[in-house]
Amino acid sequence: MSFFRNNNKRAIPKLGELPPLPNIQPVKDITVEDMMNMFTLEESLKIAYIPSILAEVAFRYIEQIHSISRDKRLDNKKECRIIRECVKEYQYTLYNGINREVLDNLFNQIGRFFDMVSWDITTLYFSINSELKKRHPELKEYEFLTYLNMVIAIIDYMRSFERKMDKIIQERTKRPYASITNPNITKIRVICESLAKQYHIDFTPTINLAMTIIGKKLNEIEFVVSD
Q1: Which residues of 26-63 are buried (b: 16+ CB within 10 A; e: fewer)?
Q2: CA 128 to each of CA 28, 135, 201, 211: distance values in angstroms, whole numbers, following the listed order
Q3: Which helix (H) or strand (E) holds 120?
Q4: pLDDT tens figures, 121-171
Q5: Which tens digits make up the pLDDT trace of 41-74?
Q6: Distance (Å, rounded) from C-alpha 166 to C-alpha 175?
Q7: How far apart, in whole angstroms, are the C-alpha atoms of residue 107 and residue 226?
Q8: Which of 94, 96, 123, 181 is the most exposed, having the fewest neighbouring CB atoms within 10 Å of its CB?
């Protein structure tokens, strides 16, 4: 069963098809000691934790995409399998070998964040959902597309945060610097946009505001290290 009328098989975009990142080379010799000297502990933890928390938020709504795809028997098994593999590889690469106490702290922060933004996440959902209905009144189902666009919005905010941190690092180190977004996150976004097809929407001021509020509350979390 196909969710939309589309007789053409989708081709999964390759990472090489993504728009190029700014032409800035990463700093070669920025060490943990450098970071600790140039940033407060709170700043360092935010740089390390915030992208991971946003990724886990996106993963939660990816589960909704999988669930809808399964229940409605959508023709996207290949895409869902690749996304699932990307999530597993991201988590393994990021968390493998990390101290259990540090991981517990991270997931406690994620739990606190969801408690803080539950209403704002709902606002984001309905902002995207209502915009889809306004632009595409001919559709009968919107939930699947709403979650796809939510994941894209969260990943885009994550990438925007990384670019802002890059700029701050450049200013403090007086050297060129550009972080590299995890390729699994990049691939997930590409596939979500491919699944959404023409129903991937440009985000309105209302949608951007909802995402900005979520990001602001995330930035307000007090990141701490247990003794």
Answers
A1: ebeeeeeeebeeebeeebbbbbebbbbbbbbbbbebbe
A2: 40, 11, 8, 11
A3: helix 100-135
A4: 999 999 999 999 999 999 989 999 999 999 999 999 999 999 988 888 888
A5: 778 778 878 888 899 999 999 999 999 999 999 9
A6: 10
A7: 13
A8: 96
Question: Tokens 């999988």 identify what position?
Answer: 66
Cα–Cα distance, 127 to 123 (Å, whole number): 6
Q: Is the pTM of this model over 0.85?
A: no
Q: What angle do CA 219, 27, 102 make, to 5 degrees?
A: 45
SS3 142: coil
Helix or strand run (H / E) with residue 207: helix 205-220
Contact 109, 223 (CB under 8 A): yes
Distance CA 176, CA 27 (A): 6
